[in-house]
Sequence to fold (189 residues):
Amino acid sequence: MELLKQRINKDGDIKEGNIVKVDSFLNHQIDVDLLNEIGKEFKSRFSSEKIDKILTIEASGIAIAVVASQYFNVPVVFAKKTDSKNLDQDTYESNVYSYTKDKTYTIRVSKKYLNKGENILIVDDFLAKGKAAEGLIDIIKQSNCNLAGVGIVIEKGFQNGGKNLRDQGIKLESLAIVDSIENDKIIFR
Fold:
């Protein structure tokens, strides 16, 4: 998606450890016009799939999934990282390790929001080592739903998450794939 690549080059920052920081337009301050284009692109790339729900993980994936959902005309369900008193006790759970935060989270989705046989599209902002996607896929398997695919805004192609998902035969659509970061410059695939 050329528009996204241009925006990453213009407004993205590279931090130590090959962190691509896009919080000025994607996951802290949000450019809704850009998210609309991202949603349209996901709809185009998954147009041949029957999608019943979009699944994401809090927090950064929520805005992306919600905007994309209007093009699919389906609800969004998001996995919660924190337990709370108002969360249903009957949940699907999986453990997800975050390399950015160096922490393992237990993610949870209420069993009443994923129904056996539904076709689920995962949408998230980043894919690096693939642990968040793997956790969401685990929840889809527990719920006896079908994984329709995974839509990622930015994939770090130099890490193994995308390769691992593709090697499993999963339909993975990444809108921008960072091949490498050299001399503080992002090289796209």
User: Anything to note?
Assistant: The CA atoms of residues 167 and 176 lie 19 Å apart.
